[in-house]
Amino acid sequence: MQTVIEFRHIKKAYGDKVILKDLNLSIEKGEFVTIIGSSGCGKTTALKLGTKVLVMDKGEIQQYDAPGELVRHPATDFVKKLVDQERRICHLPEERLAECEFSGAGEKRD
Question: How far is CA 56 from its chain centroid?
Fold first, then answer.
């Protein structure tokens, strides 16, 4: 299998509240992944870390080049729209947006 993204020992806290303590996750090409959990458990935080909308406190996220069929997949477009929406909500400055390209697509956006 080909790994698309891998989270290793991720920690993220907001002040004193630790949201992700030691997240380890590897997603392979072709896998369908659902993140389930109660409100505030870190689902959205993990997605924001994976799309570089947030910066982790500790750990490593390795993102690999996405295969062409993934780039053209309808779910990829959906995720890109969510990431763009999150960027607007987070009010990231334009200079930060350039370094926060959707990393799963392997393509530059104009």
Answer: 11
Q: Which residues contact 30 (CB under 8 A, 6 or more apart)?
A: 1
Query: Which residue in the block uniquely carries the two structure tokens 């659902």?
Result: 34
In this predicted model, what pLDDT tens digit does every residue of 41-55 receive, in sequence order? 899 899 888 878 889
Q: What is the pTM of this model?
A: 0.60
Burial class from Cβ neighbours inside 10 Å (0-12, 13-18, 19+) for residue 56 reads buried
Give tens-digit pLDDT for 91-100. 555 555 454 4
The structural architecture, per CATH, of the domain 3-98 is: 3-Layer(aba) Sandwich (3.40)
